[in-house]
Structure formats: C-alpha cells, structure tokens
Amino acid sequence: MGPLIESAVMMGLHLTTDNSRLMTAPGFTLVELVVVITLLGILGAFAVSFLVQPIEGFLDTSRRSRLVTRAETALARMEKELRLALPNSVRVHVSGRTVEFLRTLSGGRYRREADPGPVPGDPIDFNAAADGFDVLGGMPSPDQVIGGGSRQADCLDGTVDCLVIYNTGQPGADAWSGDNIAAVAFMDKGPPLRANFDNSGDLPGWSFPFESPGQRFYIVDTPVAFVCDPGSGQVRRVSGYPITAVQSQSPPGTSHLLVDGVSACTFSYAPGTATRAGLVTLQLTLTEEGESVRLLQQVHVPNVP
Q: Any idea where the domains of the chain sit in the sequence?
C-alpha cells in the first residue's frame, strides 16, 4: 500500500481505540446515585436530630432570660418608687391589680416650740388653717416644691404640692381623705428655711389634727399607681391625678407602659405595725411563645409618720 493509504489506516485505528476508551470510562449508574442520596439523607436526619435539641435549648434559655430580665426590671422600678411612698399611704385595690401610694417629694422636721434664746424662731401653730414654721436642719430639694396654694383643693387636685403631718392611714389621720393634708403656700429660703401652708380659702376652721412625735412633715407631689391589666398584657404607671378618698382600679392621669407580655399579676399590702414596716408583695407572670415566668418581689415601705 502506498504511504497515504497506510496513514489513513493508522488514523482509523487510533480513532477506534480512543472511542473504545470513551465508551468504557468509569462512572455512576442511576441505582448507585439513588443509594448514595438515600444514605446521605439518613446521615443528614441523624445529624439534624443531634443538632435540634441544643438549638432548641439555646432558644428556650434565651427566651426565659429575656422574660426574667423584663420582669425584674419592672419590679425593680416599682420597688424604687414604693420606697418614696408617704408613710401609711400605700393601698391596693380589691381586685389585687392596682397598687397606689402618695409620692413624697421632700420632707423634714418642723419647729414645735419657740427657742428660749435671743432668736425664738417660728414654731408651727396646730390651731390654724394657714401658718408657717421653721424647718429644722433643712430639707432636700426645697426649690422643687410647688407652692401658691390657698385652699386644700389646690393641693388635692395637683395644682400645688401638699404638706402632710402624722399620716397614720387611720380615720382622722388619713391623707387620702384630706384629714391631715394642706396646700403649700410657699417656701421661704430664709435663713432660716421656712415652710408655709394655707387651707383657709375653703377650710377656714381647719387645722392639723395630730402632732408628729418626731416633729416630721412630708411634701407630697402626686399620687402614683401601678395598674396591671392581663387583658391587654400590660402594667402601666399612672401619675398626676387628683387625691381621692375612694380608690379607683384604673385612675386617670398620665399613663406610661412599664412592661408588656403580662399574663397574670397579684398585688397585696400588709400595713405596718409598731414593730415592723409595711410590706408590699408584687407578683408578675410574663408569657412569650407559650412559656411563662413568674417572679415575686416583696418591698418593705416606711410606716413611721
């Protein structure tokens, strides 16, 4: 054969050899792929079963921590403000969902008797509807006291701050009923510092019914209430409303959200005695995604008037 024919024959042989290699190249059959996919699925299911529980545990722990933090923050705020309560002014509505008190802005000790020295000073007159007295030892934040009242009504409706002496919470000495509460007329910076009250505008024959054994007086600026409503899932702080003898479950005033997600709540109060302070018990239950956390806080409040 000629050279051209021999070359063609050789090329054909090479092509035949290469095609046979391609036809016999290793690979996966459909059955093998199905088996592999099945095995991977089984292994994945086992892996997921081992990972799900730790992840769910982490999410549960995070949710509980979040609920506890929110409840603790709300209870701490309530405790802080309850410690500012006028002695024996805390009261809880019969529903057990509203705790209320008169908030003290300041206070001090009044002069009860004139000094026998050359500067007698100005003692309080317990037989007058309007009077003033020297403040012994000063008082916190006298510049923040709002005066200008000439009637008890000015104090009860929140127009001016109130001056309270010897509040026992008993009939005849209950600030909620106006027994021992007077409107602040003005604060005279002196020296000496002098507090002035005035109820003569609408109560001309009025006077403070009892003296304080410790010569204490308190300045009250507003009632404060914490109102729990499981229906809306909220506890709200309400302030800036009138002082009234009858307690309301939902008092009017300026309302601010304290905490939400509340599913249950209970407030109670054990009045103080001669041997112990008053005790407020606060219980909140917060719920999120079907899980609940219940916290209880007890607050000792002063009861020495």
A: 85-301
